[in-house]
Design brief:
The complex is a heterodimer of chains A (about 475) and B (about 210). Chain A is of the alpha+beta class. Chain A contains 13 helices and 19 strands. Chain B has one domain: 3-Layer(aba) Sandwich (Rossmann fold), CATH 3.40.50.300. Helices cover about 25% and strands about 25% of the residues of chain B. Chain B has six helices and eleven strands. Classes of the chains: A alpha+beta (about 475), B alpha/beta (about 210). At the A-B interface, helix 13, strand 13, strand 14 and strand 15 of A face strand 5, helix 4, strand 6, helix 5 and helix 6 of B. Strand 15 of chain A pairs antiparallel with strand 5 of chain B, so a sheet runs across the interface.
Chain lengths: ~475, ~210
C-alpha cells in the first residue's frame, strides 16, 4: 500500500472566487464569527500586512484595494469532491479529508502509470493546468502522508523505517496534533516528535489523551485507519453565483470554462460521456435562460465541451444580465471512443461524422441540418418530408422529378409540349386535404422538363410542381 | 571532379520528375468516380468525376437534366455507405425520385444555409474527410471561394460538385472539371469546357436527353 496525500492550500480561495479569477490582494472572511474577521489572506494581501483574525476595517486600512469574500464551505466541499473525481482516474480508492486534502491509494496503480515519478508528475501537471496550488507526499500510512504533504512537498517514503525516521525528526507543531496539545507539550519541554515517541505509553496517554495517542499510532502505522472510499455521483449539477450581474456572453466564459472542466473531471471518473446538458442562466426577478447543448455522440473532452457550450452561448441573446450560471447533466452514458479501421487512410482533418455534424450544428443551428425521408402517401407534397429516413417504402411506379417546388406555382408561359400523362392523383379525402389532379410531364420552350398538373377535366390552369433536373 | 559532372544524357534529363512529356501511353493518372453515363465517362480523364477535386456544372435552366448527370455517382456512394451532402439546394429534394434513382437516403444530408454560410459549410464538409461527395448550389460564389473549395476537396479527398448558372461559363475558374449543360433542338447537350488532364482540346457535344 502506498497512500498519496494531496493538499490544496488554495482551495478555499478557488471555491469562493469561482465566478471571477482572483486578482490583486484579496482575502476570505471568517464565516463562523459574528464580526467580520479575516480568515485567510492571499499572498499579496499578506505582503501588505493583512493577517488572520484582523477585523475588516483594520485590514482595509492596511490595504485599501483588498477584495473580500465570505468563506463558502459548501462550495469548498463541492470543489474537493470535484478534485476527487479527477483523482479517481489514477486510483480506485480515493478518500476526502476535509477541508482541503485528498488521500488516494496509489500502490496498486504504480505499474499502470510507470512508477511513482511518472504518476506524481501527471498528478502535478494536471492540477497545475486546472490552476490548483497543491502539495503532495506518499507513504505507506495515510496519516503520515497527510502530515508530510504539509511539511515536505514531493516526498515519497516507501518503507516503514524511513517514515518513522522522518517523523521522529519533525518539530512537534508539524505532527498534526491539536494546537492546544502541542502548546502543552512545548511547555513540558518537548520539542520534536522523537521526544514524545520515547515516552512510555501510559505516561503519554495521561498527558495528551487517548485521541492524541491514537493519532500517533496512526501516523506510525501501528493502528489501522479505515478511510471511506469516494464514489462518483450518477449525475452532474453545479452552480456558480456571481457577485455582480454579468452582461453579455463574454464575461460568462470564465465560469463556463470552470463548469465544463469539472463536468469533464466527473466524466473521466465515471469513464462516461455526456450527450446532452443544460446551461441555465439566472437573471433578476427569477427569469432564466435555458440553453440545451446536445451532441451527436457522447463526449468527454473538457476543451470540446467548452467549445460546444461556448458557441451555443454566444449565439443566444440574453434578455438581461446574468446573476448565476448552472450546468446540469442528467444522463451520463457510457463513452465509446471512436474506433477506426487500422488500414483506413485518414483523409483531410480525419473528422468522423458526429464531430462534423456537431461543428456544423454549432454554427448553423440545429434546424439547418436535415435528412430527407420518404412517406407512403400519394399526394406528392406529402411523399417527402424532412426527418430521419426510415425503411424504404414502395417506390413510385411512374417517373418523379428530383426537384419539387415547395408549393405549386401557376406555370407561365404554358408548356410547349406534353411528353407524358395524364397521371391522375386523387387522395386525401380522409384528412380534409383532398387532392385531385392530373399530372403531366411537359416541356417548356427552353427545353426544360417539368412536372405540372391540371385540375381534372380542364385544359388550362397549369400548375408547376417540379423539375426533372 | 569533372568526371562526376559529366553531361547527362538526354534520357536522364527526360527522367527528371519535373519534366512532363505528352505521350499517348503515359496519360496522367486521375482518380475518378464513374458518372454512370458511359458516353460521358469516355470523355473524361480517369473516366468519371475527378476525386479530391472540384467539378463545376454550369446549367442554362432548371430541369434540363443537370442533376440526373450526377445522380448515378451519388447513388453509388450512398450505397457504399459514404455520405453525400447537399448544400443549399434551390428546391426540395424529392425523396421518391431520389430513392428511385438508387440513393440510400440514410446517407444523404441537406444543409440549409445562406450564401456565406453555405460556402463555409461546403468547405468544412470537404475538409473533414468523412464525406464522399459534397454538392453545392452556390450561384454567386467568387473565384477565391472556389479556390478554397478546390483545396478543401484535395485535402479531404472528397468529390466536390458545384452547380452554377451558365452565365459564369466565361469566367475563369479553378475547378478541375467544368461542364456546361445546355439545350437546343429539344435535346440536352453536355459540353466539357475544361478538364484537367484532358489532352484533346476539341470535345464534341454530348447528347444526353432527347
Amino acid at each position: 500500500m502506498l497512500w498519496a496525500c494531496l493538499r490544496f492550500p488554495g482551495l478555499a480561495f478557488s471555491a469562493a472566487f469561482a465566478a471571477t479569477p482572483e486578482a490583486g490582494p484579496s482575502a476570505l472572511l471568517d464565516d463562523r464569527s459574528r464580526q467580520r474577521l479575516i480568515a485567510i489572506p492571499n499572498e499579496e494581501a499578506a505582503r501588505a500586512g493583512v493577517r488572520r483574525g484582523q477585523n475588516l476595517a483594520g485590514a482595509r486600512a492596511l490595504c485599501p484595494a483588498l477584495e473580500v469574500r465570505p468563506r463558502d464551505r459548501d462550495a469548498e466541499a463541492r470543489l474537493l469532491a470535484e478534485l476527487a473525481a479527477w483523482c479517481y482516474q489514477f486510483s480506485g480508492h480515493v478518500s476526502l479529508v476535509p477541508p482541503g486534502a485528498i488521500l488516494m491509494e496509489v500502490g496498486a496503480s504504480l505499474r499502470l502509470f510507470d512508477g511513482w515519478p511518472v504518476l506524481a508528475r501527471r498528478l502535478q501537471e494536471g492540477l497545475s493546468e486546472q490552476g490548483h496550488a497543491h502539495t503532495i507526499a506518499a507513504t505507506p500510512f495515510p496519516a503520515a502522508s497527510w502530515v508530510f504533504a504539509a511539511s515536505a512537498d514531493g516526498m515519497v517514503v516507501p518503507e516503514r523505517e524511513g517514515v518513522l525516521r522522518m517523523l521522529a525528526a519533525l518539530p512537534l507543531a508539524r505532527g498534526g496534533l491539536p494546537a492546544t496539545t502541542v502548546k502543552a507539550l512545548h511547555s513540558m519541554g518537548f520539542r520534536r516528535m522523537e521526544d514524545i515517541f520515547r515516552l512510555p505509553r501510559p505516561e503519554l496517554t495521561r498527558r495528551i489523551g487517548k485521541e492524541g495517542v491514537n493519532w500517533l499510532d496512526r501516523i506510525r502505522g501501528q493502528s489501522a485507519h479505515a478511510l471511506p472510499a469516494w464514489q462518483p455521483p450518477p449525475h452532474f449539477r453545479q452552480r456558480i453565483e456571481f457577485d455582480s450581474e454579468l452582461d453579455g456572453s463574454q464575461p460568462l466564459l470564465f465560469p463556463l470554462r470552470r463548469l465544463t472542466r469539472s463536468l469533464a473531471n466527473l466524466l473521466a471518473a465515471r469513464d462516461g460521456g455526456v450527450q446532452r446538458f443544460t446551461l441555465t442562466l439566472e437573471h433578476a426577478r427569477g427569469a432564466t435562460t435555458r440553453i440545451v447543448v446536445a451532441m451527436a455522440a457522447p463526449q468527454r473532452d473538457a476543451e470540446r465541451l467548452f467549445e460546444l457550450a461556448r458557441t451555443r452561448l454566444e449565439r443566444t441573446t440574453l434578455p438581461a444580465p446574468a446573476r448565476a450560471i448552472e450546468l446540469d447533466a442528467e444522463e451520463l452514458p457510457v463513452f465509446r471512443p471512436l474506433v477506426r479501421d487500422l488500414f483506413e487512410p485518414v483523409r483531410g482533418d480525419g473528422l468522423d461524422w458526429p464531430t462534423l455534424d456537431e461543428r456544423l450544428r454549432a454554427r448553423l443551428g440545429d434546424a439547418a441540418l436535415r435528412q430527407i425521408a420518404m412517406v407512403a402517401d400519394h399526394r406528392p407534397e406529402r411523399a417527402t418530408r424532412y426527418g430521419t429516413p426510415g425503411p424504404v417504402v414502395e417506390l413510385p411506379r411512374r417517373r418523379r422529378p428530383l426537384w419539387l417546388l415547395p408549393r405549386p406555382l401557376p406555370m407561365r408561359p404554358v408548356p410547349a409540349a406534353v411528353l407524358a400523362g395524364p397521371e391522375r392523383i386523387e387522395s386525401g379525402w380522409w384528412d380534409g386535404e383532398d387532392a385531385r389532379r392530373d399530372y403531366y410531364i411537359v416541356r417548356t420552350q427552353h427545353g426544360q422538363h417539368a412536372w405540372a398538373y391540371l385540375p381534372p377535366g380542364t385544359l388550362d390552369g397549369w400548375m408547376l410542381h417540379g423539375w426533372f433536373a | 571532379m569533372t568526371a562526376a559532372l559529366a553531361t547527362p544524357t538526354l534520357a536522364q534529363v527526360l527522367d527528371h520528375p519535373g519534366i512532363w512529356r505528352r505521350s499517348a501511353e503515359r496519360q496522367p493518372r486521375v482518380r475518378a468516380l464513374s458518372t454512370g453515363w458511359t458516353s460521358l465517362d469516355a470523355k473524361l480523364p480517369g473516366g468519371g468525376w475527378p476525386q479530391g477535386a472540384l467539378s463545376e456544372i454550369l446549367f442554362e435552366h432548371d430541369g434540363l437534366g443537370e442533376l440526373d448527370l450526377v445522380m448515378p455517382a451519388l447513388a453509388a456512394l450512398t450505397q457504399e455507405h459514404r455520405r453525400v451532402i447537399f448544400i443549399a439546394p434551390p428546391y426540395v429534394p424529392y425523396a421518391p425520385a431520389l430513392a428511385a434513382a438508387g440513393v440510400d437516403l440514410r446517407f444523404l444530408h441537406e444543409i440549409h444555409a445562406g450564401s456565406t454560410e453555405a460556402a463555409w459549410s461546403m468547405e468544412q464538409c470537404l475538409r473533414s474527410g468523412c464525406c464522399g461527395a459534397v454538392v453545392g448550389w452556390l450561384p454567386d460564389i467568387d473565384y477565391r471561394s472556389l479556390r478554397r473549395l478546390q483545396l478543401a476537396a484535395e485535402s479531404g479527398d472528397a468529390c466536390a460538385m458545384i452547380f452554377r448558372p451558365a452565365d459564369h461559363a466565361a469566367q475563369n475558374s479553378p475547378a478541375a472539371l467544368r461542364l456546361r449543360v445546355s439545350n437546343s433542338d429539344e435535346a440536352t447537350y453536355v459540353d466539357v469546357l475544361k478538364s484537367r488532364g484532358l489532352l484533346t482540346t476539341t470535345a464534341p457535344l454530348l447528347r444526353m436527353r432527347a
